Amino acid sequence: MDKVDIIGDVHGCYEELISLLHKLGYQKENNYNHSEGRVLVFLGDITDRGPESLKVMELVYHLVITLKKARYIPGNHCNKLYRFFLGNKVQQRHGLETTVAEYEQLSTSDKNVIREHFITLYEQAPLYLQLPEVNAIVAHAGIKESFIGRTDKQVKTFVLYGDITGESMEDGRPVRRDWAKHYKGKEWVVYGHTPVMEPRRINNTINIDTGCVFGNALTSFRLPEEETIAVPSKQTFVEEKFHSFKVD
């Protein structure tokens, strides 16, 4: 994988994903082959909140599992959906309810296919991706330098949820430490999870969750070029969902 296109949190925004794939040079008619041999990487949270989670899920499954042309790592929403499909009791809120509503509309046979596909996609995914060819690590909510190479429970929590303190803000969102500010690693860490209005580059990290589902944009990060490419969102803009970081 000498050239990769890492896609930020899609959250069920299928139309925007197709637009971004076209802009990046991947065409369905060409079975999503790229003329430069580029590889797509999805950094988690492909479902929930948006209008077409199941279509996004099926496309990612097709690219990753069937065609073996793309890579995928899970996010916290993926983890929750996986537990739902296993039959665990999970609260259907914070976006899961939209995916479940789509799922409940399906016939029993279609439900079985979707469930089986997502479980396969999730279980075959690494916790995070190390891409030495482009000197990068892709982790849904990021990763500390000292965690790289580990997959224990502490690392899993960090990769899925970020550097959480255990406290909550007034609106219920978890308080997170700004781990990227202290990152000293030589490898790029490409992540999402926390919606920002513009891709946030600090040290060798970049957050590319530009809040497509909240009306801003769907962003990709290209390596080795180190450039971002985005398409505008078609969703309603919700300003309070975006995180602004304190400038020291």
Task: Record the SSE blueprint.
Blueprint lengths: L3 E4 L6 H11 L14 E4 L10 H14 L3 E3 L3 H10 L10 H9 L3 H16 L5 E3 L4 E3 L14 H9 L2 E5 L5 E3 L11 E4 L8 E3 L2 E3 L9 E7 L3 E6 L16
Parallel strand pairs: 1-2, 2-3, 5-8, 8-10
Antiparallel strand pairs: 1-11, 4-5, 6-7, 9-10, 11-12
Structure keywords:
alpha/beta, 12 strands, five-stranded mixed sheet, single chain, 6 helices, globular, 248 residues
Structural summary, described in words:
This protein is an alpha/beta fold and 248 residues long. The protein is 28% helix and 19% strand. It has six helices and twelve strands. A five-stranded mixed sheet has the order 3-2-1-11-12. A hairpin with a 5-residue loop joins β6 (164-168) and β7. α2 packs across α5 and α3 packs across α5 (108-123). The longest helix is centred in the middle third of the chain and has 16 residues, at 108-123.
Quick rundown:
This protein is an alpha/beta fold. Helices cover 28% and strands 19% of the residues. The protein contains 6 helices and 12 strands.
- Please, how many helices? 6
As laid out across the biggest beta sheet, the strand order is 3-2-1-11-12
Number of strands: 12
**Which structural class do you get from the secondary structure elements?**
alpha/beta
Helix content: 25-40%
Biggest beta sheet summary? 5 strands, mixed
- Which ranges are low-confidence, i.e. pLDDT below 50, for 5 or more consecutive residues? none
Rg, Cα atoms, Å: 17 Å
Order of helices and strands: EHEHEHHHEEHEEEEEEE
- From the spread of the alpha carbons, the general shape counts as globular
